[in-house]
């Protein structure tokens, strides 16, 4: 006889500026366990909007929990995630007693509307929190979890909206990329390492490394000296509700500095995105100075992990870190 399921999944319909979004709500299941139809893989016909709202009489516990986790998905991606990481994370948290909502924002997955960038999802996040609180009135506070540009979206949201419902932030490998930052990271963490290797020079002198490789290095060095514009036209056009037209990385830094709740920062060792973020914190100017040591920030490094924590061991580590952080952020 199989073990009783420890989570219950249901569809949550979300309206955002006249468009329908799809949310999947994972909640702790009753100890006796009823049949868990939502254990079927995400993306099945049963998990579309036609699935309807969560059954208010289903009997799963955790409904009175004052805190939950909103999993914002980076793009281009939808609520399941690479190797089903978001589905598995949400269900692991629900089994541990933490309800979790993951959403497709406008233009992604099963949501309506045109595709948009991470700088433009403030309304989607707010609409998801509104719908969740209507469905579960006991929900008071939410921790936002995001990977890559979803972590960036979370920081932009708290900067622009100052939403008191946000109790904490889980930021995994936040995205701060510009063309210059990528070039600097590549020069620092790839090209300089190669220049220190005797094998590289042997290949160069023997002709096995062509001049094209040298030209590529010189090009990266030139790009790395460039600076990101503080306000470009494209950034201005995508400014959030607050009308802040500064470069998105500056807005992120302000969001991280001003946010009053605890922050869990998870960084992969084998990931250029994480390296760029650390470089930005060290060399990004006054806006970024001291952010890694700000009060309430807890940093966790996974030295061998890749960008999406693609092994079972890395995924389980992230699940444990997240569950513990959300419990610590729970309202009294």
Describe the protein in words.
Helix content is 37%, strand content 17%. With 332 residues, the chain is an alpha/beta fold. It folds into 2 domains: 7-33 and 44-54 and 63-177 and 244-328, 3-Layer(aba) Sandwich (Rossmann fold), CATH 3.40.50; 180-224, no CATH class. An 8-stranded mixed beta sheet has the order 1-2-4-3-5-6-7-8, with helices on both faces. The protein is globular and about 65 Å long. The two termini are 39 Å apart. Mean pLDDT is 80; it is low at 31-64 and 228-237. Residues 85-275 form the Serine aminopeptidase S33 domain. Residues 35-59 are annotated as: Disordered. Pfam families: Hydrolase_4.
CATH class of the largest domain: Alpha Beta
**What is the CATH T-level topology of the largest domain?**
Rossmann fold
Structural class by helix and strand composition: alpha/beta
Note the run of SSEs as H and E. Answer: EEEHEHEHEHHHHHEHEH
Query: Helical amount among residues, as a percent range?
Result: 25-40%
- Overall spatial form: globular
Low-confidence blocks of residues: 31-64, 228-237
Gap between N and C termini: 39 Å
Largest sheet, spatial ordering of strands:
1-2-4-3-5-6-7-8
Beta-strand residue percentage: 15-25%
Instruction: Report the CATH architecture of the largest domain.
Output: 3-Layer(aba) Sandwich
Mean pLDDT, as a whole number? Answer: 80
Total number of distinct structural domains: 2
Count of extended strands: 8
CATH superfamily (homologous) name of the largest domain: Alpha/Beta hydrolase fold, catalytic domain
Number of helices: 10
Q: Rounded to an integer, what's the Rg over CA atoms? A: 22 Å
Largest sheet: 8 strands, mixed
